[in-house]
Specification:
The protein has 198 residues and is an alpha/beta fold. Helices cover 31% and strands 23% of the residues.
């Protein structure tokens, strides 16, 4: 009898690459199209978990009997949820806000198992950027890495030179906490086939 398929409910190329990094290759990528508007007074950790749950439950309805994995990553400064900037001006505002201060990156990871149960995990990391000069911000924006990135930066790219402190999961800041995701899958019966026999 064939093992249940693994469906990734995300269009993010970063999440797919992160999973491949630990030897997990989804059988199918089926992004969820949901409204990602935060609810009134919704705190960043709850927002990340809610979006992850909504994504997997919507996609699971299209793939009964499969494992459906999804996640959402939120960059937050205090209670404020930072956007994926729509333009360079918005990205500049994000970087100016984050300059010289610590912020948190919250990820919600959700898994629907073949029986229909939904399991959730939340992972929080703390990051601090150096105090950025106007020239450093302009140089970073000119590279275009801010596009489609929560908070306007990509730690796995040129922004690595701007990060002075990180506490917690690095892969979480990139977009998917790998240790917690692997543990969630293994704990719910998905047979990991990674090279390290994890």
């Amino acid at each position: 009898m064939a093992a249940p398929r693994l469906v990734l409910a995300s269009a993010s190329p970063r999440r797919l690459e992160l999973l491949r990094q630990i030897g997990i290759v989804p059988d199918l990528v089926d992004p969820a199209e949901i409204d990602e508007t935060p609810l009134r007074s919704e705190l960043p950790p709850a927002y990340a978990l809610r979006l992850a749950r909504e994504k997997v439950e919507r996609v699971a309805a299209r793939h009964p009997g499969a494992y459906v994995l999804g996640a959402d990553t939120v960059v937050a400064c205090g209670r404020r949820i930072l956007p994926k900037p729509a333009d360079e001006a918005a990205a500049r505002r994000c970087l100016e806000l984050l300059s010289g201060r610590r912020h948190r990156v919250h990820s919600g990871v959700a898994l629907v198992v073949p029986g229909g149960e939904t399991a959730l995990r939340r992972v929080d990391s703390q990051v601090a950027l150096k105090r950025l000069s106007a020239e450093e911000i302009a140089g970073y924006l000119a590279g275009g890495e801010w596009r489609e990135k929560a908070g306007g930066y990509a730690i796995q790219g040129r922004a690595a030179a701007l990060v002075r402190f990180i506490s917690g999961s690095y892969s979480n800041v990139v977009g998917l906490p790998l240790f917690e995701t692997a543990q969630l899958l293994a704990g719910r019966g998905y047979r990991l086939r990674c090279a390290a026999n994890c």
